[in-house]
Specification:
About 55% of the residues lie in helices and about 15% in strands. Strands 2-1-3 form a 3-stranded antiparallel sheet. A hairpin with a 4-residue loop joins strand 1 and strand 2. The N and C termini lie far apart (about 40 Å).
Length: about 80
Amino acid sequence: MNTETFATFMQEEHRWLSEHFDELIDQYAGKMVAIQGGKVVAVGDNATEIYRPFREAGQTIMPLLVSIPHPEEWDNVAHC
């Protein structure tokens, strides 16, 4: 994947994340989620746990990994 294609891929994932972040907080607070192709493809407590099956499957491009805050943590950040 060239740099331009990768940048487009990441931009699309970030757009999806920003549009669905409140939903993710409601469903996955305190967890880490992996996002790929505009959907949550894995949920876990740490990057190793989440990425292991992707590595074992030989996937070379990993999903976007995001730590989802608890609602009260997000409220504190959002009001700064």
